[in-house]
Write a structure and sequence with these properties.
By secondary structure, the protein is an all-alpha fold. The chain has one domain. The structure holds iron/sulfur cluster (2 copies).
Length: 339
């Protein structure tokens, strides 16, 4: 088993600031409404981190079965914030399964923000001058996303290509329903906020295709999507502020993504309004900001919170299909010991 002594340090940069405080009492696991006999967390994952067992932590489905309700953090006697620790493992997974990996790293820290903005600005420039670039970017995002999800799925114990696509249907249903949020009764309020953000993006995506066929219905759908997305984002931030003690302050990943959503929706709505005014300079700036945020969300989708819906969906399908809570690494070790 590969041990990474730097693992806890790396997670610290992604939001797990108090891993060393945990003394493994297990209160968090006892209180967690989503922990089961087969999949017990968060204590087990925290133990892996303390021991530097990186593969076990990021190849386990448990970090994705956690829905960040924060219930565990309120009962931790050491204020280790187990909810934040679970979130940091998910953030680490975004980087680990990224293709190419450096793109995932770019999205993980404010240090790289100027590079992210510069790449997006260059892409926006060429997009505005070369119409076909949009199709190339779409192909890039699709291929890279599928490959990253494939790597994730394999790491968690998935086997063949046909199984991968067979589980896609089940995963999609899991994602569309969002029903695991409602199983966590203490944080059912988060369900509607996530539904808003998720379906806001879905409506925006559909509106682009509708606009190709018919301009006005596409525009109407686009505006509906922007409003749904904005309401969802406001709701998420409100929940973060209201329940800060429980859910923690959030990581750079969380805040960067939600900030981009605000930039996208607000500049989009302003753009529509300024189309009917004579404020051409302001209109131009708003238009560029809107384009920049759209490119950043789209091109960095395989490396941001955007892709977590798929990781979570596949992890849930894999977890359901397994009888025991063994990770792939644990299963291999068990098999090796038995041989
Ligand atoms: S995170 Fe807190 S509650 Fe959970 S095992 Fe560690 S000390 Fe106990
Ligand atoms: S945040 Fe909620 S779901 Fe996640 S481990 Fe803690 S109690 Fe369980």
């Amino acid at each position: 088993m590969r041990v990474n002594p730097e693992f806890a340090k790396k997670l610290k940069k992604l939001g797990a600031t108090r891993v060393t405080e945990c003394f493994n009492c297990g209160n968090c696991t006892a209180i967690c409404p989503l922990s089961t006999e087969d999949f017990m967390f968060p204590r087990k994952i925290i133990r892996y981190i303390q021991l530097g067992l990186e593969p076990r932590a990021i190849q386990s489905p448990e970090p994705w079965l956690c829905h960040a309700c924060g219930e565990c953090s309120t009962t931790c006697p050491r204020q280790a914030f187990p909810s934040e620790i679970m979130n940091s493992v998910r953030n680490y997974a975004f980087i680990s399964y990224s293709t190419p990996r450096f793109m995932g790293v770019l999205f993980s820290s404010p240090v790289y923000l100027p590079i992210v903005i510069a790449i997006s600005a260059v892409l926006l420039y060429f997009y505005l001058h070369l119409a076909f670039l949009g199709y190339l970017l779409l192909a890039y995002v699709a291929v890279v996303s599928i490959y990253s999800i494939w790597k994730f799925w394999r790491a968690l114990g998935g086997e063949t290509v046909s199984d991968f696509f067979a589980t896609f249907k089940e995963t999609l249903a899991e994602i569309l329903k969002h029903d695991r949020f409602t199983k966590c009764e203490t944080s059912a309020y988060r369900y509607y906020a996530h539904i808003g953000v998720f379906y806001g993006f879905v409506i925006l995506g559909i509106s682009k295709f509708v606009a190709i066929l018919s301009y006005i219905p596409g525009k109407v759908l686009n505006n509906i999507g922007a409003i749904v997305l904005l309401v969802g984002a406001v709701w998420i931030v409100n929940n973060r502020i209201t329940y800060r003690e429980r859910v923690g302050s959030g990581s750079y990943h969380d805040w960067f993504f939600i900030s981009l959503v605000f930039l996208l929706t607000i500049t989009g709505i302003l753009n529509e309004m300024l189309n009917f005014s004579s404020l051409t300079l302001i209109g131009y700036v708003v238009y560029l900001l809107h384009g920049l945020s759209a490119i950043m969300i789209f091109v960095f989708a395989p490396y941001s919170k955007f892709i977590h819906a798929f990781y979570r969906g596949f992890a849930m399908v894999i977890a359901r299909s397994r009888e025991s809570g063994e990770s792939k690494v644990e299963a291999e070790e068990t098999a090796a010991e038995a041989a």
